[in-house]
Amino acid sequence: RDLRTPVIAGNWKMNNDRTAAKALLSDLAPLVKDAACTVITCVPFTDLETALAATAGTDIKVGAQNCHFEKSGAYTGEVSADMLAEMGVEYVVLGHSERRQYFGETDVTVNLRTKAALAAGLKPIVCVGEHLEDREQGVTAELVALQTKIALLDVTAEQLQNVIIAYEPVWAIGTGKTATAEQAGEVCGVIRATVASLYGKEAADKLVVQYGGSMNAGNADELLAQPDVDGGLIGGASLKADAFAQIVAAAS
Ligand code: PEP
């Protein structure tokens, strides 16, 4: 754990126009100043420029919520990793369960996007996690290990240093249902063990593995106390400056 700085990332999803983004970030910046963890807000594409300007000189880093795997071309509606990097964006969420559920994202396209993001110099936050049926059938560990392996296909050991993996049980996202600290810790441990089997223990010990799924100020302490939980990916609670700042404080 000493090898890892916790990372708290907000995922705004399709919320906040530029006016709201500016207001939220200016409220948040003083609340997370000098935090002992890395603080990221992942915003809609249309907010990126505003967010980059509003966070300049603060301790908040900016991420996008997706990128395409091709450098350019006939992909209407998509945004490339290079386009984000050129703007000064540092992070990108990939393979979020909402992308998988509503937009046809698969383990294979998550891998392509991960490689494209890394090649562009972005730091991907790669989401994995099981559905409720998977958990009920007892295949969570196997499934999450497989998602992790496919996401990291052809990612080099050097590139791995820029990867964050977020364990997000689908049944806990936006539902108010949180995994117990033990469940979160256990699956984050499976992810680390999977990465150790691919890249060695030393690399795995440095990997940041977040938990995501209805994390809030009330349950953050307990979740973050798990040795393999190095932070959180926060949806709903990232839309309020004070709620998000309390999670940042719990991780610091
Ligand atoms: C998410 O969108 O990644 C997420 C974890 O959402 P929520 O915190 O709202 O469950």
From TrEMBL:
Broad class of enzyme this protein falls into: isomerase
Pathway recorded for this protein: Carbohydrate biosynthesis; gluconeogenesis; Carbohydrate degradation; glycolysis; D-glyceraldehyde 3-phosphate from glycerone phosphate: step 1/1
InterPro entries on file: Aldolase_TIM, TIM_sf, TrioseP_Isoase_bac/euk, Triosephosphate_isomerase, Triosephosphate_isomerase_AS
UniProt entry tagged with the keyword Cytoplasm: yes
NCBIfam families xref list: tim
Keywords for this protein: Cytoplasm, Gluconeogenesis, Glycolysis, Isomerase
Subcellular location: Cytoplasm
Family membership: Belongs to the triosephosphate isomerase family.
Pfam families xrefs: TIM (PF00121)
Gene: tpiA
The name this protein goes by in its record: Triosephosphate isomerase
Sites where the protein binds substrate: N11, W12, K13, G174, S214, G235, G236
Family annotation (SUPFAM superfamilies): Triosephosphate isomerase (TIM)
Cellular component aspect of the GO annotation: cytosol
EC assignment: 5.3.1.1
Stored Gene3D superfamilies: Aldolase class I
PANTHER family per the UniProt record, alphabetical: TRIOSEPHOSPHATE ISOMERASE
GO biological process, one term: glycolytic process
Source organism of the structure: Neobittarella massiliensis (ex Bilen et al. 2018)
Active-site residues from the entry: H96, E168
Function as written in the Swiss-Prot or TrEMBL entry: Involved in the gluconeogenesis. Catalyzes stereospecifically the conversion of dihydroxyacetone phosphate (DHAP) to D-glyceraldehyde-3-phosphate (G3P).
GO MF annotations, alphabetized: triose-phosphate isomerase activity
Catalytic activity: D-glyceraldehyde 3-phosphate = dihydroxyacetone phosphate
Taxonomic lineage from the root: Bacteria, Bacillati, Bacillota, Clostridia, Eubacteriales
Subunit field text: Homodimer.
